[in-house]
Amino acid sequence: MFDPTAFDNLKVVLEGAIYDADLGGVITVIGRKDLVDLAAMSRCYQNTFQLKEGNKTVSAEFQLSMSLSQLSGELLKTNAVSECEVILTFQARSSSAETPIKTIVEELWGVYSITHQISYKVPFEHYHHTFKVHFNRLIGEEQVDDLITMTDHAIDTLEKIKEGAK
User: Fold this and answer.
1) Contact between residue 4 and residue 27 where contact means Cβ atoms under 8 Å apart
2) Is-contact 27 51, C-beta < 8 A?
3) I need a labelling partner for 59 at 20 to 30 A (CA). Which of 32, 37, 115, 150 fits?
4) Is 49 helix (H, G, I), strand (E, B) or coil?
């Protein structure tokens, strides 16, 4: 019988939290990837969403990943605890290199490591802002409730961004 890994169990919880919010009419899922990298023997799940009502130029994406060492350690029972990496990314388009979104993300997620990348294409149409929230820790099945809290907080962040754009 198939014994799901910690990655599988955490993915189900994260996916459930996101799709519950989608079914509740709060957000719209706009992208989903469930990847197995055969070269690196790793797993990655990504889910991108935006608010159902409001600014369609802003989105959030959760990425849950498990590396070869984490996956093999769990399957071979050499790791005491099986854990995954979680990264939350907010993406936005704006006409300016400065954006109030940076302040909002830093205020709401400031206890974590946040990187901000700005890019644009030539000819210039708009700036593309990417804010990555690195949690500086791995998440295991013991912290499964943290994924639900993170999802709710990510949706709250999108709401604050929507309010800040008014």
Assistant:
1) no
2) yes
3) 37
4) strand
Tokens describing residue 4: 């799901």
| CA atoms within 13 A of residue 5's CA, in its CB half-sphere | 24
Side chain identity at 128, as an amino acid letter? Answer: H
Say how far apart CA 113 and CA 133 lie, in whole Å: 6
Please state the pTM of the whole predicted model: 0.91
Cα–Cα separations (whole angstroms), residue 140 to 13, 14, 89, 121: 12, 12, 20, 39
Q: In the numeric block, which tokens belong to residue 118?
A: 């700005």
Residues forming a β-bridge with 93: 128
Q: What pLDDT, in 10s, does the model give residues 93-136?
A: 988 888 888 899 999 998 889 999 999 988 888 999 999 999 99
Q: Residue 83 forms beta bridges with which residues?
A: 140
Look up residue 74 and give its amino acid: E
SS3 state at 105: helix
Q: Cα–Cα distance between 147 and 151 in angstroms, integer?
A: 6
Q: How far is CA 12 from CA 34, 35, 58, in A?
A: 11, 14, 25
For the chain, where are the alpha helices, taking DSSP H only? Answer: 6-23, 68-75, 100-109, 144-164
Burial of residue 117, with CB atoms counted within 10 A of its CB: 0-12 exposed, 13-18 middle, 19 or more buried: exposed
Closest CA to 147 of 80, 72, 70, 84: 84
